[in-house]
Design goal:
The chain has about 140 residues and is of the alpha+beta class. It is built from four helices and seven strands.
């Protein structure tokens, strides 16, 4: 579970327009919206979270997280503006099967809407090839 720190980060949530809070998530200082539970991860932070694997899911939890029937099909349809630079981010369609769209700023990082950080972790935990595919689609995989 995320550990909020006392410091509020100056960036705003691209969905709620509320200040993002800097928290410790899986050993990474991530920016989280306390209203919608969205996460902004700067370049390199997703790779750290996925390689650390501090949070492990049971098979039942993975199935529940990745179940399309529990996915929000009514999430944001427009790309988010980057919380850091304000430019509109590119939408990366990772996996339609689990309804996962990730917003990516080529300069600063990625925005994960509500629940997407868990989906990314569950997909990466499911197999190394899915982990590498995710990073490749985001332009983060280095051979």
């Amino acid at each position: 579970m995320p550990n909020p720190s006392s410091k509020t980060h100056e960036s705003q949530c691209p969905r709620c327009r509320l200040p993002l809070r800097r928290i410790d998530y899986e050993g990474v200082a991530a920016d989280m919206c306390e209203s919608c539970w969205g996460f902004f991860l700067e370049t390199g932070e997703l790779e750290q979270i996925l390689s650390e694997k501090a949070l492990h899911f049971t098979e039942e939890e993975k199935a529940r997280i990745l179940d399309i029937r529990t996915a929000s099909k009514f999430g944001p349809s427009a790309p988010a503006p980057c919380p850091k630079c304000g430019h509109v981010m590119e939408r990366i369609h990772y996996d339609a099967e689990v309804h996962l769209l990730i917003d990516k700023c080529v300069e600063d990082g990625i925005w994960l809407d509500t629940g997407e950080i868990k989906k990314v972790q569950a997909l990466a935990e499911k197999s190394m090839s899915l982990h590498q595919l995710l990073l490749r689609k985001l332009g983060l995989f280095k051979n």
